[in-house]
Amino acid sequence: MLSELSNILKITELRQKIIFTLVMFLVFRLGTHIPVPGVNAAVIEQLFTSGNLFGLLDMFSGGALSKFSIFAMSITPYINASIIMQLLTVVVPKFEQWGKEGEEGRKKITQITRYGTVGLGFIQAIGMAFGLKVAIINPSFGNILIIALTLTAGTTFLMWLGEQITEKGIGNGISLIIFAGIVSRLPDGIFTIYEYVIAGTINIFNVFLFLIIAVAMIVFVIMIQQGQRRIPVQYAKRVVGRKMYGGNSTHIPLKVNQAGVIPIIFASSVLMFPVTIAQFVDIAWVKTVAGWFAWGTPLQTALYALLIVFFTYFYTAVTMNISDMADNMKKHGGFIPGIRPGKPTADYLDRVMTRITLAGSIFLAIIAILPNFVGAVTNLQGVYFGGTALLIVVGVALDTMKQVEALVLMRHYQGFMK
């Protein structure tokens, strides 16, 4: 295994990509410690409890939001712009046409996504500056505008950084930035556990139980992330001139978790919104309602699971066009054995996708709510081990490993993955 891993360092191109990616990670981590001018960071840190939307955003930013640094908004506006563009591609005919034009069409969509990122980032920065006005030393309009422009510039720089990693580094740059932000919180979690053990709050058995559950969750996530239903497809033979084409067999891989981590992000944002609003509103009934949606309450947990199931079906239905898949298969002479081409094929694929999406949505719901029970069983409070972070870290790690494996196989007959 060590000799196979050494193949990575022997390839000059791959070694340069890895070094470039690590240098970009260093730039990202340095930026999380550069504060926005005119803000009292001590006041900001008091707002970051485990039950609000700021805690989720702080996780994605790698702690930059709690420090209110120039990267406080992280890459969240880009994610929102990408999701909006992905949904609009299904609704707007022009965007749908661009999506089918190959590389040129993707460049146009990417350009609009960049503009959307800047626009959404500025709006979010303005809202964040006004919402956190209590932490601004001199909350004049000019200072709020400067803070908003600084935060927008930080997000735009992160977007450029991610594109540079994608082009010159290894893996998807945007995903790797989020990955780096989440993993950077790991030392803090380990130190917190160490302090609990020293103080006698927990014992070694609690830590050992936590490690067993964590490893089991990681294995479970990998199994479901890699799980797919393979639909066999047979292509009929056809003669063009003097040559015969087709006659081969292949399959359509339908992933169990087609929606990824998006449903958890949607559900978290919806349920955490009332709690976050209550922090800035001094009205009794608003705080009472927000208490019902506090993190870990029975109502919040039940609604969280139901919303994840709903958003999984919604996002899968919007982003996956079963009818186009069946039509393209029919145009190229492909058919599923035992199923007629056209509408019967689309109905069959839709029925299969509905069933495996149910399994995927239940999996996402279990992963999302399991940390609530992990804290109660192991008595480890204040150590974040959420489903969102776990899915992102495992998913990005698997995708990056596959890209490294592909680059190694280009130079050697054998890679490093078994």
Q: Unreliable segments (pLDDT under 50, ≥5 consecutive)?
A: none
How far apart are the first and last residues' alpha carbons, in Å?
9 Å
**Helical stretch count?**
18
- Major beta-sheet overview: 3 strands, antiparallel
Beta percentage is 5-15%
Total count of strands? 5
Helix fraction, binned, reads: over 70%
* N to C succession of SSEs: HHHHHHHHHHHHEEEEHHHHEHH
Rg, Å, rounded: 24 Å
Shape assignment: globular
Structural class: mainly alpha
Overall average pLDDT: 79
Q: How are the strands ordered across the major sheet?
A: 4-1-5
Characterise this structure.
This is Protein translocase subunit SecY. There is one protein chain. With 418 residues, the protein is mainly alpha-helical. The chain is built from 18 helices and five strands. It has helices at 2-10, 12-31, 41-45, 53-60, 64-67, 76-91, 93-99, 103-131, 141-168, 173-183, 186-199, 204-226, 262-278, 284-292, 298-319, 322-331, 343-378, 387-411, and strands spanning 228-235, 238-240, 243-245, 249-255, 334-335. α6 crosses α8 (103-131). The radius of gyration is 24 Å and the shape is globular. The N and C termini lie close together (9 Å).
Summarize the model shown:
The protein is mostly helical. The protein has helices at residues 2-10, 12-31, 41-45, 53-60, 64-67, 76-91, 93-99, 103-131, 141-168, 173-183, 186-199, 204-226, 262-278, 284-292, 298-319, 322-331, 343-378, 387-411; strands at residues 228-235, 238-240, 243-245, 249-255, 334-335. This is Protein translocase subunit SecY.
